[in-house]
Amino acid sequence: MLSLFLPASCAQILVTCAYKSLCQQALLSGNDVVLQCDHLQAYWYFSSFQGEAPFLVSSLPNIKKLPGGSLQLNKPQPSQTGLYRCEDNNTALVVEYEIDFQDVTMLHITHKGLGQNPLQNQSLSLGRKEIIFTHWEPWQDCNRCGVPGERKRLGYCYIQESLENPVPCWLYLGDEKLWSSRLQPEMQVEACLVPCNHSKEIIQPFFTFDISKLGQSTSNMQLTCPLASIYR
Question: What domains can you pick out in the chain, each with its CATH number?
Answer without folding.
Answer: 2-102 (2.60.40.10), 107-192 (no CATH)
